[in-house]
Amino acid sequence: MITKQLICPKSIVVVGASNNVHKPGGAILRNLIEGSFKGELRAVNPKEKEVLGVACFASVADVPPTDLAVLAIPANLCPEAVEILASQKETRAFIILSAGFGEETHEGALLENKILETVNQYGASLIGPNCIGLLNTCHHSVFTQPIPNLNPQGVDLISSSGATAVFIMESALVKGLQFNSAWSVGNAKQIGVEDVLQYMDENFDSDRDSRIKLLYMESIKDPDRLLLHASSLIEKGCRIAAIKAGSSESGSRAASSHTGAMASPDSAVEALFRKAGIVRCYSREELTTVGCVFTLPELKGRNFAIVTHAGGPGVMLTDALCKGGLNVPKLEGPKLDELKEKLLPGASIANPIDVLATGTPEHLDIAIDYCEKEFENIDAIMAIFGTPGLVTMFDMYEMLHQKIRHCRKPLFPVLPSIHTAGKEVEQFLAKGHVNFSDEVTLGTALSRIMNAPRPAGNKVELYGVDVPAIRRIIDSIPHDGYIAPHFVQALLHAAGISVVDEFVSGNKEEVLAFARRTSFPVVAKVVGPVHKSDVGGVTLNIKGEQHLALEFERMMRLPDATAVMVQPMLKGTELFIGAKYEEKFGHVVLCGLGGIFVEVLKDVSSGLAPLSYEEAYSMIHSLRAYKIIQGTRGQKGVNEDKFAEIIVRLSTLLRFATEIKEMDINPLLATEKSVIAVDARIRIKK
Amino acid sequence: MITKQLICPKSIVVVGASNNVHKPGGAILRNLIEGSFKGELRAVNPKEKEVLGVACFASVADVPPTDLAVLAIPANLCPEAVEILASQKETRAFIILSAGFGEETHEGALLENKILETVNQYGASLIGPNCIGLLNTCHHSVFTQPIPNLNPQGVDLISSSGATAVFIMESALVKGLQFNSAWSVGNAKQIGVEDVLQYMDENFDSDRDSRIKLLYMESIKDPDRLLLHASSLIEKGCRIAAIKAGSSESGSRAASSHTGAMASPDSAVEALFRKAGIVRCYSREELTTVGCVFTLPELKGRNFAIVTHAGGPGVMLTDALCKGGLNVPKLEGPKLDELKEKLLPGASIANPIDVLATGTPEHLDIAIDYCEKEFENIDAIMAIFGTPGLVTMFDMYEMLHQKIRHCRKPLFPVLPSIHTAGKEVEQFLAKGHVNFSDEVTLGTALSRIMNAPRPAGNKVELYGVDVPAIRRIIDSIPHDGYIAPHFVQALLHAAGISVVDEFVSGNKEEVLAFARRTSFPVVAKVVGPVHKSDVGGVTLNIKGEQHLALEFERMMRLPDATAVMVQPMLKGTELFIGAKYEEKFGHVVLCGLGGIFVEVLKDVSSGLAPLSYEEAYSMIHSLRAYKIIQGTRGQKGVNEDKFAEIIVRLSTLLRFATEIKEMDINPLLATEKSVIAVDARIRIKK
């Protein structure tokens, strides 16, 4: 519950306030004072009458009614203080900085529970405990430094780690990135990252609110809510980037199925971010660089012009953009000749446009104008302007400032001379701009942004899927575990997924009759043993009745054999689809080409059920082996539409059969005309 | 030619010196003065008696004998000044800053030639023209800023772009990276990047010289020399990292063979760097980070301990290291329990070791000591210590300083609070340390370094290769272009590469007789048409004489058919080897699995001929599909030793048959026992 008293309190009391600014209780009061909090400030400290010039009370019982309380007192004193403030002082927001709660001991966890009970009873907000606090344009209720420049159009940072939030602000500061708010949720006893996002979504005011959200998370407690509100915010025009740290952990978990081994917990995160449209970052440096890009107008295309007065950085930036699938197109035509006339002799104009080291602000002006107005195939402009120290850059950066204000295409300033032109860069940032001091870091961030898809929405594609039948089948399955082949067949049929015709029997004559009907060649597989191939329980390409009869007899003598299954022998490219239920995330669906592509090359892409057709196509297209699906070097491709259809329908099946914990269809055999499931396994747990 | 007068002149004259430090002729004199040049400084300017306090002469003819001349005068005045100085003033080193030479006009190129003639005649050095100059511990002959901190153990920077050198120094400065020298070679009329490296190699003094070289190049003019001296320096204990910018350009060049299309000019660079043992970087940020890592003791293994007082950065660093194939092993055992006792309650010790936000310098001391002395499975330590601003970090960083001085394992300081603890970080850097302010950038740089192989040397493996035979065959080939099958066979035989038995004839009876001898099934291929498959000129799996006779007749009627080739039909895993001659680099050899692996997945690795066995194995191991070569999921692997042998022998063949411009063996068929070339094409140009 996020109350208005938390966001914009009329009064704040710091409980445990101190004159010593090297203690959290002193530092936070200093930050509140220096942050020009407009409301009333109060302090509580039994030993003082006044703390840092603020009226001080001996105990919370003595304080007048106060909207927000910040607690910097030992953990064991917090429950009572919260109780008194909430019940007697109308306090409806609490920020508890103190550590020593559930993160440390069982007793601490009990204290936390007590506090939560109280704040919930009174409909109050609780940030923390064990956090650095909350910083916004109204109040600086954090005990840490640095305090970034604040701006209602700056970024909202929500972090599950306080120290990381601090270090992210350090990294943002040198880039000129401004903040609207910074939330450190600490133990997140009441308010977690998802709650803050939900609040921002539900209360989004497109005229007033910041459109940039940066997240740092070490675990995703409520993926559904994260997905819902992140997508919704992005649909409303916001842009979100996030670090989910801890991607390398685990991987060692037991997994009984094929898909189980392929799907790491990180593929669930990957799939969630893709579905939500969140740009995934892996470092503070990347997150703040992406944040800086977000402050500029949105890119409408992938074609960049580079304007510079130094060759090298332009070349390195071109490399980085091309590596990320973006373009630095060659410029051509009469307008280019016109531009050349207006620059210094020797200036290079093919793109990068190099106005030379002796190029003036006017040359910058002209080059940017041409890129904005004359070159239709340019979507955005990078301006790389450092200095070897001969002249100051004030005029150049003032020109850049003017161009950024008026250019209708996004214009990225790359100012590498942060030391030599330190003062000039500072002045430029003070005008509200950001700076990308390393061109390749910018290029990489842009690729990440441009390659993140739009939010996919959460609509379930029902066409072709018989949901009541799915439920009937699932409900009729007697045991947990891998389910019998006829259940698998029935579920795939109900989901509208084509399955190879097959027949299971322990009776030789029946089997032969089926094979005659479906026509040879056929495949025979033993029913019973789990690892069929290993015991010689699979025979391909059986061309006649006599051979089938012999194989039937042999297979029925294998240990655990109960029957033999016969299928027509299909040909085609092997495809693979799998799914795994990830706690809290739901089903992660994987697709790829079969065989070595999955097993050796791990060439799979992942999505989170339910999947839209757009997502399914995007998954297929992001396979490294996509060219094989398209058809390559004389080889025909496979029916991509059918493949996408099966991915979508499988994801719908999973949405209505959450009892399915793991499944794979491997292989599907695909031709230009059809994609047919040949073998599938499903494990359920009710 | 690099003279001692260039490296450490006794006297320097700035020609075109100016009192205006906003001009190169003023700025360079200021830098020389501020850099405390110990020798005699002189200036030339017809309008002044003294420039910035330095005695000034009206013309170069008036100057006393001077070792080094820096020219900052118009291009057209340079040749005469150089002539006078070299012939009359014993000047044996020139740095020409001026532009307006070959990079701009033909007339400029002629001026450059004239100057080169003069300096060569007198055995003098020439840096430039069109450069920022040369900076070392003896003299600061650059006109640019910043001037980095100088230290004989700092890095040597050699750059083909002056502005990029300046921006690299900007990026180095904030990290505390110190320099021994910075060379801007400009137009490199006499001295290029390779020459500087050669000089450093041939004059290497292990007691005195810096062991770290950073390079920035946009083209590699003399790959052989770069390879030779870079490898040699690395063998002598140096460490080299380089940016080769322009990796994305081209790719559109015409290529007639399979390998031609696979081998981009960048694979030649990649192969060269791998052979030399150079760490390849792609940005200034990366290059300077790698440079900082190089200042620390060399890593002996891949296992890292992370000591920190903040959780998040430790997790992100762990992710980055694991992604790069490095480890953050779990710590265990009684010594770990002992360590836990000595830290604060709640400290986490599994690795990362989190001494908590309230951890003291003593805790840092203890944790590092345990990692250094007690945990055998730790090769290096990362210390991440920022601050939320409550207390200063002077004591903490003093402790870190002491630990770095005495720790026998490499200890990497990660100090993120560059703003809030700005003074503390500055003091720490002033003690000669570097700082990695972003932990993930460090992790990525470490992976790059650890994954760069050792220099491979340039030894040619002759065993099994009949060099005289190769020369005889090459010399006997009458025409340029794709050579006839029997020449291909003969060359592969001479190189000791097993080739499938084959027989070519236009006579049906002979063909049938061969097939009978070698035993069916066989493969028949038409000889004559270039694209055999496209015209129906390849038939596999011919099982009997009658079938072969029919195919023979059909093929001989195809357009351009001159004969039919018959081979026994082999089975096995398809492998691929190709090579392409790259101007100046020599032969780039590619290997991989055949078919879709090469064509669709571009899963190839490259090396520069001649290749050692170590390199060949390293190429094979770096394939994504290596598991297939090893054998996977019940499928047998292939004979890796034979594959490596063929790669090595092919590279030897190429070394002695540089007339071969393109070739590929595709496929080779590989089993557990043998690897046999089935089809090969070779194009020569004499």
TrEMBL record, chains A, B:
Signal peptide limits: none
Database matches in InterPro entries: ATP_grasp_subdomain_1, CoA-bd, NAD(P)-bd_dom_sf, Succ_CoA_lig_flav_dom, Succinyl-CoA_synth-like
Chain ranges of the CoA-binding domain: 6-101
Gene Ontology molecular functions: ATP binding
PANTHER family in the record: COA BINDING DOMAIN CONTAINING PROTEIN (PTHR42793), PEPTIDYL-LYSINE N-ACETYLTRANSFERASE PATZ (PTHR42793:SF1)
The protein's name in its UniProt record: Acetyl-CoA synthetase
